[in-house]
Amino acid sequence: MAVRMQQEINKVIIGQEQTVKFVVAALFADGHVLLEDVPGSGKTMLAKAVGRTIGGNFSRIQMTPDLLPADMTGINYFNMKTSEFQFLRGPVFTNVLVADEINRATPKTQAGLLECMEEKQVTVDGTTYSLDDVFIVLATQNPVDNQGVFPLPEAQIDRFLVKLGMAYPKHDSMVQILQTHLGGGKPVLDAVEKVVDISEVFTAKKLIRETEVHEDILHYVAEIVEETRSHSGVLLGISQRGALGLVRMAQVLAAFDERDYVLPDDVKEAAVPVLAHRLILKNSERMKQNREQEIIEEILGRVSVPTE
User: Fold this and answer.
1) Quick check: 85 and 77 in contact, CB under 8 A?
2) What is the pLDDT of residues 223-233, one digit of tens each?
3) Which of these, 38, 20, 55, 34, lies nearest to 99 by C-alpha position?
4) Cα dihedral sign for 13, 263, 236, 285?
5) Which residues lie below 8 Å from residue 235, measured CB to CB, with a gap of 6+?
6) Please, is 160 exposed, middle or buried when counting C-beta atoms within 10 Å of its C-beta (0-12, 13-18, 19+)?
7) Is the distance from CB of 286 to CB of 235 less than 8 angstroms?
8) Has residue 14 got a pLDDT over 70?
9) What are the CA-CA distances from residue 246 to residues 47, 203, 264, 273, 274 (Å)?
10) 149 pLDDT band (50/70/90 cuts)?
């Protein structure tokens, strides 16, 4: 199932196989994705392609400074015909939600996504409405902008299971991208077909949660997390949510390899995408590019790996 989804997405997202893999993995891990890279790198197209593969509902919100939380969650309006208030659902009531340029929205609006992402529900005027069981937020942001943006607070960054980039493609991939988009005829996204149903995704998510995680693996994860808290360059290390997210992602990666048990290699593969963006570095470390990733890799090389 996951392989077919990746194959379909890779038809239009060329040369980004690892990023595509982790986006699909986040869907099955019941997590959310923060895509950060330069403008025009295909972040929004990737999000749309994910929605097409599962045949679910898809919504896109262009985050702007004048956007209000009610524009996302919905409002109660007075129906003149029935003389009653009715709830008009916002775009968060979907399966795949793209929050484009999330850091252009004000902190108040950004906070409007917190309840949706963590608890899969929306509360409006004291009434709580549940979101779909299959719900993923794919938020994008550009790291090069510094005007008219509101950096995401640590509390919201921690809500994202993984943070991924869309690196510049290699030469051959770049040529293939140009050929794909200059082909004419149908829109590029029309090449992406539905390969699974929402019900199948929901069932797969429940089965993946049953993937065995040996106690030694849990100790391994705990040691990695504890090392981030004592690292000399880290002001604030990984929380319990981050540790659980690492285990969830390792379970998904094991399932992708058709295993019903987690290996240390699954933890290692998931560690940087799941943990790096959660680190809060000391001022002396913040100006170093990719320092968060380097710290996680240092810790992985230092913590002893469990053996059978």
Assistant:
1) yes
2) 999 999 999 88
3) 34
4) negative
5) 280, 281, 282
6) buried
7) no
8) yes
9) 22, 21, 11, 9, 6
10) confident
Q: Residue 30 has what pLDDT? A: 92
Q: What percent of the chain has pLDDT over 70?
A: 96
pLDDT tens column, 75-99: 888 888 888 888 889 999 999 998 9
Q: Any idea which residue has 């943990």 for tokens?
A: 275
Q: From residue 175, how far is each of 49, 91, 168 by CA, in Å?
A: 20, 36, 12
**The pLDDT of residue 153:** 82
Tokens of 81: 């015909």
DSSP codes of every residue in 242-290: HHHHHHHHHHHHHHHTT-SB--HHHHHHHHHHHHGGG-EE-HHHHTSTT
- The total number of residues shown for the chain amounts to 308
Reduced to 3 states (helix: H, G, I; strand: E, B; else coil), residue 128 is strand
Separation between Cα atoms, residue 240 and residue 236, nearest integer Å = 12
